[in-house]
């Protein structure tokens, strides 16, 4: 009988049996803890025992199901309205929104399908065509396609799936024995098992049984063995590696191409022996030399013959509703399940959610020997391996690890972290997470940083450098990055908070970012965002939200001066009893309004902007402020506007200069020569550190050059006294003394 869902599709997988009863899930099952597979406790116990002595215990995020019996679920709709027990008095009936039930699996038929696919695939992989062509031919081979689509529908996260391949008691016993037998201290007890490894399965079983008869009856492993099931067990392949391969194959649609080749090789080896696997191994070798071997199988779809492609797409469509994880896996080792009940008007919703995780624990020797493919098979298709390594393990195996991955051409990123109990806290987790985020991104500074001598910690920068110097590992780098990230957030947090109107400007400016991009496309704002060295906007000042721990300041609008600078300007206005302000570079109006707010009633801000659009937006932003009357906006090139102001006899107590950097020095000269900056007045200039470009040894951008020209000009001009504050992108204050 065909599966009911598959039958509706016309051609369903042959190995899935229909559900015998579509019994509704009893309401009482809500909230019950998931059933833990028996295997988990035994395997975990064995692993725990073994880990002390095995040469390596690899917890590979794999696919042996240890979790709840969720399994492939049927989307079979139950009677629409289900009354919960004791729910008679409820105002409205409860609707069942979703319902799943397990399918059954017929293991022997899956095994024969794999055998057929391997048989048909074998001559294809031996062909002399390119590996890419052979892969396409493999995917077009009907028996391979049928196997793939069928396996994609298997309930791999279920205990039922494992049990379909394994007779439970004997399987638990045997797999545990083999594992323990590999551990020297247990080999005494289980010597006969060790001896049978590598023999044919039937003789192995006999030896295991003999061994059992002799072994300590009180042992955990002397569970009764239902001999009637030995036949079933032999008929299915008693092979965890095969089970693991199937569990991965379920996600074939999203697997890297070379992963498929690995799985074919594993299946051929497990079912037909090493000689049958050899051609697949060779195929894998050449395939991993192709540039796209790490790309997903689904990317090949467009290159397949139309009817083959249609079949795969039909399968993907089917899976989308029947088992979305199979086509959109968030992780192939995790599956979520949900069950939702709602009142008719959806005013109350009750939901039960569960997540099933799968893990494979491998206990193996000599995993870092180049000929051992355990790690290769996992990481080669992914192209790289990122590993969090205990510092003691690194001390012993670090070099071997590096050599293994280098030898196999797999990029290897190692995050070394202390494994001491005392260090295992949330900060350690944070450090590892930061390192994971950073790893793989080349740090342009890392090569330039010569470790300085131990130094006095006076500033946050000193602290960071000292931390880096003392322990140059990834965790320390991550920690320093976190601290650096936190500096701006800390400044914002502990500076007076901006007015509602100023906050609104920040928000409005952030919202308009896409508009700037749009305007730039139309050529309307060609000068608004002056290009920096890498084409980025010139001005790295920003408004930032902050998190309570000072981490992750978030730039939301690059050009705006923002809270910290706005507060400084307000302070300067108040402290200097300023009456007349010149704001050069209006943008969306933040600095103008900030200064206007601090001015007395008869104070005045003249603000200059070359872009009509920006000036318009600024005016809109000030409109609702009670201080709008203090602001006068002028549109045009700053240089021309300065000349006009000078010819009107204007002069200012405070000038804030924040326009394009190449023009800085010329504007400064005008301010000085015309007297627009009065003697006794103060000039504030933004972005004078210009992204720290001078700290690098690289050539400066035009903006960097502009900032440097002004800095040098101020230094050489004895009419002014100046100080450069490392606030955000650098803010220089210059007092005109004569
Ligand atoms: C960094 S933003 C000013 C930010 C503003 N002070 C604030 O607090 O949000 C620079 C502004 O100056 C304008 N600008 C740049 N060069 C200019 C020039 N030479 N003359 C006039 N305006 C200019 C730009 O169009 C831009 O709006």
**What low-confidence regions span 5 or more consecutive residues with pLDDT below 50?**
1-103, 167-237, 441-455, 519-557
Oligomer: single chain
The number of domains? 4
Query: Rounded to an integer, what's the Rg over CA atoms?
Result: 35 Å
Backbone shape: elongated
Helicity, as a percent range:
40-55%
Main beta-sheet strand count, sense and barrel state: 7 strands, mixed
List the total number of helices.
27
Distance between the termini: 99 Å
Number of strands: 17
What are the distinct ligands in this entry? S-adenosylmethionine
Strand content: 5-15%
**Average pLDDT metric:** 70
Question: How do you describe this structure in short?
Answer:
GO terms for molecular function: O-methyltransferase activity; S-adenosylmethionine-dependent methyltransferase activity. With 738 residues, the chain is of the alpha/beta class.
């Amino acid at each position: 009988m065909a599966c009911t869902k598959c039958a509706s599709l016309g051609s369903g997988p042959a190995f899935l049996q229909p559900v015998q009863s579509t019994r509704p899930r009893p309401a009482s099952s809500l909230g019950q803890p998931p059933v833990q597979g028996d295997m988990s406790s035994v395997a975990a116990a064995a692993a725990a025992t073994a880990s002390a002595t095995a040469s390596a215990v690899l917890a590979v995020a794999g696919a042996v199901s240890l979790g709840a019996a969720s399994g492939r679920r049927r989307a079979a709709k139950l009677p629409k309205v289900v009354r919960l027990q004791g729910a008679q008095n409820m105002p409205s009936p409860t609707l069942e929104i979703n319902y799943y039930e397990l399918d059954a699996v017929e293991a022997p038929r899956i095994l024969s399908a794999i055998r057929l696919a391997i048989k048909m695939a074998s001559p294809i992989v031996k062909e002399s065509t390119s590996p890419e062509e052979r892969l396409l031919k493999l995917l077009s081979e009907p028996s391979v396609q049928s196997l793939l689509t069928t396996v994609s529908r298997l309930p791999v996260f279920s205990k039922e799936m494992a049990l379909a391949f394994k007779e439970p008691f004997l399987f638990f016993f045997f797999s545990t024995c083999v594992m323990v037998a590999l551990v020297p201290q247990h080999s005494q007890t289980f010597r006969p098992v060790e001896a049978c490894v590598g023999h044919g399965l039937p003789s192995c079983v006999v030896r295991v049984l003999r061994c059992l008869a002799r072994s300590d009856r009180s042992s955990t492993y002397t569970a009764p063995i239902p001999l009637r099931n030995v036949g079933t067990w032999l008929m299915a392949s008693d092979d965890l590696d095969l089970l693991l391969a199937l569990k991965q194959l379920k996600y074939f649609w999203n697997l890297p191409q070379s992963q498929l080749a690995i799985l074919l090789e594993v299946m051929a080896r497990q079912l037909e022996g090493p000689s049958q696997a050899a051609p697949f191994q060779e195929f894998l070798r050449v395939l991993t030399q192709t540039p796209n071997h790490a790309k997903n199988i689904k990317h090949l779809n467009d290159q397949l013959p139309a009817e083959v492609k249609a079949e795969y797409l039909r399968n993907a469509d089917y899976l989308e509703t029947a088992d979305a994880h199979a086509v959109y896996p968030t992780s192939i080792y995790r599956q979520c399940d949900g069950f939702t009940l709602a009142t008719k008007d959806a005013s109350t919703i009750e939901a039960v959610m569960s997540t099933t995780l799968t893990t494979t624990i491998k206990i193996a020797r000599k995993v870092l020997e180049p000929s051992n493919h355990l790690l290769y098979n996992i990481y080669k298709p992914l192209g790289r391996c990122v590993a969090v390594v205990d510092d003691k393990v690194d001390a012993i195996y670090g070099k071997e690890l590096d050599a293994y991955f280098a030898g196999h051409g797999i990029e290897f990123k190692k995050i070394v972290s202390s494994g001491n109990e005392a260090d295992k806290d949330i900060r350690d987790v944070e450090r590892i997470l930061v390192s994971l985020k950073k790893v793989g991104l080349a740090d342009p500074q890392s090569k330039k940083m010569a470790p300085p001598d131990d130094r006095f910690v006076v500033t946050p920068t000193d602290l960071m450098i000292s931390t880096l110097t003392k322990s140059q590992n990834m965790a320390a780098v991550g920690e320093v990055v976190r601290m650096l990230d936190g500096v701006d957030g800390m400044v914002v947090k502990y500076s007076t908070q901006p007015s509602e109107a100023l906050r609104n400007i920040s928000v409005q400016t952030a919202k308009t970012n896409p508009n700037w991009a749009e305007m730039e496309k139309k050529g309307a704002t060609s000068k608004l965002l002056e290009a920096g060295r890498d084409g980025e906007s010139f001005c790295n000042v920003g408004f930032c939200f902050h998190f309570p721990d000072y981490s992750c300041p978030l730039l939301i609008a690059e050009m705006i001066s923002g809270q910290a600078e706005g507060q400084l300007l307000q302070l300067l206005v108040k402290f200097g009893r300023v009456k007349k302000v010149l704001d050069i570079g209006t943008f969306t109006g933040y600095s103008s309004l900030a200064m206007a707010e601090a001015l007395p009633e008869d104070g005045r801000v003249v603000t200059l902007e070359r872009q009509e659009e920006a000036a318009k937006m600024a005016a809109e932003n000030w409109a609702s402020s009670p201080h709008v009357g203090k602001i006068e906006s002028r549109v045009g090139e700053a240089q021309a506007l300065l000349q006009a102001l000078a010819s009107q006899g204007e002069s200012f107590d405070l000038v804030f200069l924040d326009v394009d950097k190449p023009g800085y020095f010329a504007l400064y000269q005008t301010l000085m020569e015309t007297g627009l900056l009065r003697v006794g007045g103060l000039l504030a200039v933004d972005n004078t550190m210009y992204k720290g470009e001078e700290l690098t040894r690289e050539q400066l951008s035009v903006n960097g050059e502009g900032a440097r020209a002004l800095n040098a000009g101020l230094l050489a001009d004895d009419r002014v006294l100046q100080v450069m504050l490392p606030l955000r992108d650098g803010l220089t204050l210059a007092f005109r003394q004569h």
